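Hi W.,

Here's what went into the run:
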Amino acid sequence: MEVKVGIVGCGVVGTGTVALLLENAKVIEEKTGIKLSISKVADKDWSRPREYEVPSTLRTTDYREVIESSDIVVELVGGKDFAKRLLLEALERGKHVVTANKHLLAEDGEEIFKKAKEKGLMVGFEASVGGGIPIIKALREGLVGNRVQNIYGILNGTTNYILTQMLEQDVSFDTALKRAQELGYAEADPSLDIDGWDSAHKITLLAFVGFGKLFPFEEVYVEGIRNIDLLDVELGKDLGYTLKLLAIAKRMDSEVELRVHPTFIPSDNPLAKVSDVYNAVLVEGDFVGKTMFYGRGAGSKPTASAVVSDIVDIAKSIGSCKSQSWLWESKEGFRINKNFYSRYYLRFDVPDRPGVLAKIANVLAEYQISIASVLQKEKVCKMAGREGQPIVPLVILTHKAYEMDMQRAIREIQQLPVVEGKPVIIRVEEEAY
Amino acid sequence: MEVKVGIVGCGVVGTGTVALLLENAKVIEEKTGIKLSISKVADKDWSRPREYEVPSTLRTTDYREVIESSDIVVELVGGKDFAKRLLLEALERGKHVVTANKHLLAEDGEEIFKKAKEKGLMVGFEASVGGGIPIIKALREGLVGNRVQNIYGILNGTTNYILTQMLEQDVSFDTALKRAQELGYAEADPSLDIDGWDSAHKITLLAFVGFGKLFPFEEVYVEGIRNIDLLDVELGKDLGYTLKLLAIAKRMDSEVELRVHPTFIPSDNPLAKVSDVYNAVLVEGDFVGKTMFYGRGAGSKPTASAVVSDIVDIAKSIGSCKSQSWLWESKEGFRINKNFYSRYYLRFDVPDRPGVLAKIANVLAEYQISIASVLQKEKVCKMAGREGQPIVPLVILTHKAYEMDMQRAIREIQQLPVVEGKPVIIRVEEEAY
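Here's what came out:
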């Protein structure tokens, strides 16, 4: 059976997808009996250099030509407005679609998914999370028998590279970011990555597949790594923790936590070992227990691998008399819970004199926050290079506490005359393994 | 749509599967629209205690009743003879089958797969490798666009637990095995696990799915961990390696290596961090690069999760007018290559006197085996507790060499009058990450 695939957007991932479809068409046909052919590839600029030469017969600048000529339309333009119009138009014309556009789907996917459902068409978005890691399929099919409980992800290669550099090379955030930019891992404007938005888009989509609900994007708590101080990375390391930008989707019955923030995880946790630009997703289901999926989270070829797995799945369903849908809606009335319950790492700048700790401890106690340990002052001062100074860092690890209590306590502590500047607050996840 | 599932064999995995199908039927229906119901569960002994109570209306002792009443027959009896008859009979009667029986499929699957193909039926065997890890699906579908190059697996929880104990607790193989048996991780007769057969069955099936050929089982090179000495685990650790029982399926064009043996892998390799009873599979494809899949490799509930993912996939295909097959045959004329090419760790017992190393090095050189390093004698003697003794261990790390050259060199070295007893030979895989 021959299936015609059209691609709109021939950037890094688009070019990789063309390369894969042309180079491995025979392997795919051998494996599945399906002959995939490229109908047309649209891009507005064919003059820019590409890693792989797209045959001139396939090129067009008119996306409508792609929709017209294909059974499956692959959107790889990125951005929100045009991509959305394109996907809706393709669906309207009865074409299945595949996209890697997490930004669009997470913030504005409702309308696209609704249209697909209405038309009995499929929307593949494996490539939108975790590059080549087949995590959407694993959640949707491999773990189909499970009630998914928790999803923890290192979903952004740029930030993971930066944090790995800080941890292993003892460099500041700024230096690590500059290195990432030099290597092409970070954009000139890196805010989508380093401020956590990209991870937040991805965890929204993982929660959609795992829990059966596309939560409003504005409900995701997002905190990036821009203000991370090397000192905290090092103090954490000394405590047996590795700092990661962790994306978390947790449920307790029908209460769901969706959050992205710098997180200390135990260094012997498999997620802690995921370094550089690699991504990993840990899924916990009621039967399977903990499983982890690991690989390159971005890049032309890995992402093309994911795009093509969607194409093949959709191609298999074409000509079947059973309509298939990948979208499911859970009947549980989920509620977003923002009052997270976790351990905290706190660092305050305080004068080096008796009674300071007591004052802070009093406020914490007032809010039922119990202290697990206080780091030895001499050691912290030494690591901070602030021995013998009048203002020194005070580091406290708490037991589990509620986010709202913590926020209130911190506000009150900040008002204590002994506390200088803004405290550092980093959540600790002990269960993420 | 309702699909009837029958189960034969209600041991640990069978019981877990019944529990999952009864407890999570609603979740599965919500996700997929498919209503799975259990028709019958057969076991020859209903008196033994089980973790989960199978409703008496579902119980039978007659496997034929299961075949008769089901759309999908799940074989969970294990062993070879009866399981094979059961699967062939079910297929003959037009039923799709699901099995966790790696032993049967790897040694004797040809006939079963042939029958399934002939009848246009599906054989699900996700549960046969890696417990709950959806690795078969990932290889078959998630990475469908790739030419799979290499598969490295830690596929046996029992041996991985034993090696983890040796590495982390500094105990001997015998002590570690005893602990595994006490915890129920190892059978009273542990030979299937510790001699590498279970891992060999599993890598045969992974190669089948990844490469498209069911290689004759006797072509797999198998070496277990029974003779592993704690000293080598510790010396390896000191060199930056972790010892694992690694299952390897590698290809170079159409030459395939299939092997299971104790293997040193760099300790910063993600596979090295897979400890205790966990399993992991690292797959390398031409587009996706390296991906890794990790989870519990055994146990009632994780394995049930895998069984059910096959059931759901098959159920989706029932009533479709397109016949689906999971089996593919590559047209490449694969050849098994037993002349592996890898680095080696060698340990000899030799007299502590000048000239000994020269003699051994001469033989290695004769076979084009080049020495990468020789471990410092004092250190090795100290770790072995053999300081000042007349016979001391000599440890050599080689560069990459051919297996056959190595075997010949070792035979010759063993004949040197200076070498006592049997040398220790452990392969080193640097690329497995």
